[in-house]
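Notes to self after the Tuesday call (sharing in case useful).
The group wants a holo model before anyone commits to mutagenesis around the pocket. I volunteered. Ligand is copper (II) ion. Logging inputs and output together so the record is complete.
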Amino acid sequence: MDRRSFVKAGCATLVGGSLLRSLPGLANVTPASYELTASEGVFSFDPKQPDATRVMFYNQSIPGPVIKIPQGKESVIQFHNALEEPSSIHWHGLRIVNAMDGVPGMTQALVQPGETFDYRFTPPDAGTYWYHTHQRTWGQLALGLAGVLIVEESHPPQVDQDFVFAVDDWRFNQEMQIDTESLGAMHDWSHGGRMGNMITVNGQIGKTYTVSKGQRIRFRMLNIANSRIMALRINEPQASVISIDGQPVKPYLLKSGLITLAPGQRSDLIIDITSDPDSISPIELLIKDQVYPVASFEIDNKIQREQLLDSPIALPDNPANKIVLPAEMKNIPLHIGGGAMGRMNKAIFQGKEMGIKDLIQNKQIWAFNGVAGLPEKPLFSVKRGTAISLNIDNDNVWPHAMHIHGYHFIDDRNPGELRDTALFTRQEKGSLMFIADNPGKWLIHCHMIEHQASGMLTWFEVV
Ligand SMILES: [Cu+2]
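Result:
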């Protein structure tokens, strides 16, 4: 490739002439620099359909541009708010300084319309992460304010292609517009959250990935939906998990190609394509006993190699992988109550005990340890370096995706992996264990965003 076509190809990765800007060649002296502008506008989820849908997006793209930043080096992401309402950006899964965590009223002031905020941080761990609004998330995320963030390894495994698969769930009305009338519906908030009627991958209905037989691909899968748990099936038998929520794991082959991602969760796969040339290998979403193809590998007529690669696929360890938990930990019980068909009849909200009718009037229906919504006092306050075991009792009939800001934890139900978001099914118990070594104020919340909005959030402090 000559320099000119290289530059052209490089530009083609900037979705829709976006404002994403990097400063190549200066990375060692000046931090990598990007601009993200949140605005309202129109977007076409189906390129064949002229119907444009009103959305909120970053850099006029859904999802927002894939931001690639280096591991262990400072990056600056300049956020411009061109919305008509305040916003902020949270960097999901990144273990960064508290002031950059993007939680309005806790780690920063709201970014008002017309304002700019510089997010400046050094990600310690490589991997697949994402960014999204953390203001009125149940509305702004449902309208599109999310994107993928990749922290690049200095020595990534050799692959032929590196793909992003960001699956999302939208509720459209008859006019192919996002159903905004049902935003905030208490029925959704008290049940499983807002479920959509249209699945997209990378903002497209029926996304296709062109691959060749024998190719090795890296497949970065993310669930960026408000509330839908995605049970997915890859129809390529040589698909191995190499990382979970950004952190490397000992590679293992997917069983029957099945992978479940709760909202907020990610998994990187290495897939060696075995399907024959000129065939289609669908990626399916399973809902009860129904199967919905949501994307596909289109195998072209070339053969990359006759024999599949057998070179190692393991990722290098991140600093997060080196954390060793002590035998003694501070136990923090976290009882989750409420929701439809629950037994909760009262909870404390904004310092006042309320019956269920008053709670619902305040749009609250869930409680952590009997407290709905963000409490004034933290769930716990500890000295830096304290080992924590957050003992979760999901005492209700709904699944929840529990997310801890700023940390990765070991889940005693799957101690071989690190996560930042853990799924609890109805009545399930489990302990999320980590060392509270990063000072600041950090949120714990359900990543079914409607549950977060209706009570499921609290915070802790590390001093
Ligand atoms: Cu939940």
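Two things stood out.
The chain has three domains: 3-152, 161-315, 323-462.
The helical segments are 3-12, 137-140, 186-190, 356-361, 449-453.
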